[in-house]
Amino acid sequence: MDSSSDAIPHALVVTPSGQGHVVGAMLLSQSLAALGFKVSFIYFSSDYARLKERNSLVLPSPDLRGGTLSTTSTCCAGERCSNGYGSKNTAIVISDVIEVGNSAPTVDCNGSGGGDGGRGKIFIYVVEDALQPGDIDKRFFVTPAMKENLFNLIVELRELGHPPTCLISDTFIPWTLDVTQRAGIPRIELWTSNAMAHLLISNLDVLYSEGIFPEKGSPTQWKGETPLMLTHIPGLPPFSSDLIAKDLRFADSKNHIIQFFSKVASCVKCGERVLINSLLELEPDAFKSFEVQGIPSYAIGPLPTQMKLEDNVQTECLSWLDLQAESSVIYVAFGSSAKLSVEEIQELSVGLEASGNSFLWVIREDSVTMEELPQVLPEGFLERTRGTGMIISWAPQVKVLAHKAVGGFLSHCGWNSTVESLWAGVPLLCCPRFAEQRVNSHYLCNVWGAGLELGRTKTGGLDRSFVEGGVKALLHEEEGHNARSKAQEIMRLIEKTSQQGGQSFSNLQKLYDDMRALCSKPSK
Q1: In angstroms, rounded to a whole number, what is the distance separating the alpha carbons of residues 423 and 279?
Q2: pLDDT in tens, 35-85
Q3: φ/ψ of residue 165, rounded to 5
Q4: Mind giving me the DSSP string for 335-375?
């Protein structure tokens, strides 16, 4: 380790596939770089190729992009290495990514360092994963190549004079614990959602070992008629089992997802600390539960959202918003994973039109293409709503939510969307679908008061009358006005905690101080 007084902590940040995970990891990377970390952000090759093909790569802000820390492969950017996972030269330096908007690399290509030695910069690496085509879409799938090549990258960076101080791993990559133990560096866990959601999955094995799950009843119902009140998590008050996703409540204990979360739970107890993209002030009970269980947890969020997938922003929707009255538009979007069925699109469209409100609606191309849309929507819908409604396939969401014309957000309640809305002080009409979204909706509607719950059918489907009533309530009725006041109150709280002296800022500063002290220790 570098024993000099100006040692720069170097964090490797590793994330699984999934836009929410990647965005959360990059947001953290930017915050770390702003504190003075040198950050190496890791994509696995299959994810990188897929995101690049979709033009959906998550990149750091141009002023934070570093040059090349090493040239460990002669492969072209984005191409698969052919030298096998047992070889050391399997990490691809993506110069077309890290040098965009950066006229001169911060660190020399031969790794000798220069100038600031990479302080405050983010370097992108793509590590060969050797995934076969049939395995790419499998959840939580890991190959020997992932472990071996990530370890080899750590070794190579050491040889080049850029030793990683720590590895920051998303919760959903528990196998990185093996890599860090082998490499002799701490594993720091990143949870990109709220603390309560982490507690639910990391204590899931208790519910199965005690025979409470699998739950009895019908998994087709959106909400159980007699949900269980769960008391198994130390430090948490009783809560309804409806907060847990159905695929976790009704599965067999030998299901691969349940087995996976059991591994997650064991890794949590072995890590150096858990970084959680939430606020202590919003979840005091959940953070207390981590403390009771002896797990070091640090609230570091919500992480600032000024991160840009949005370099090439389509401005047509923003120009359209400029023409709308203040707080008059309902923004409708269901994230990067949830696909809307034709029936759901039809129910939403009828409900939105009946509400009489202006709307900006994102329908992703993998649900329905813009060419197919006229055949899917009710006859005459586009003509009747011309001027009051706009449908697009993608939106610069952070900028949309910050626009004064937006009065509410009809959302699936993914955590990133939830945080982005609260950063802007915009209340939500909550329509959770899977994963931890029920927890997020519960917090918004029942705890924080910054959202209203959208009514659903018994099986969780969308209904036009619920959509109409929900939009009207959020934008025009007292409960909606109260939700807006609460959202703006939380916005001010977020601003306070993320500034110097705030709890989340202080926890990130502690991470920097601890890692700087670690990398300043002389090697044994």
Answers
A1: 12
A2: 999 999 999 988 888 888 877 788 876 666 655 444 343 333 333 333 333
A3: -85, -35
A4: TTTPPPPHHHHHHHHHHHHHHT-EEEEE--TTT--TTTHHH
Q: Peptide bond before 186: cis, by omega within 30 degrees of 0?
A: no
Q: Which tens digits make up the pLDDT trace of 220-238?
A: 888 877 789 999 999 999 9
Q: Are strands 329-333 and 358-362 parallel, antiparallel or unpaired?
A: parallel
Question: What domains can you pick out in the chain, each with its CATH number?
Answer: 10-192 (3.40.50), 194-268+310-499 (3.40.50.2000)
pLDDT of residue 67: 52
Radius of gyration of the chain (CA): 23
Outline where DSSP puts E strands in 347-494: 358-362, 389-392, 406-411, 428-430, 451-453
Look up tokens 């141009």; give the residue. Answer: 62
Contact 41, 33 (CB under 8 A): no
pLDDT per position as a tens digit, 101-153 = 222 223 333 333 344 668 888 998 999 998 888 777 777 788 999 999 999 99
Strand partners, 10: 38
Give the Cα separation of 187 and 270 in Å (integer): 9
- The Cα–Cα gap between 264 and 444 comes to 26
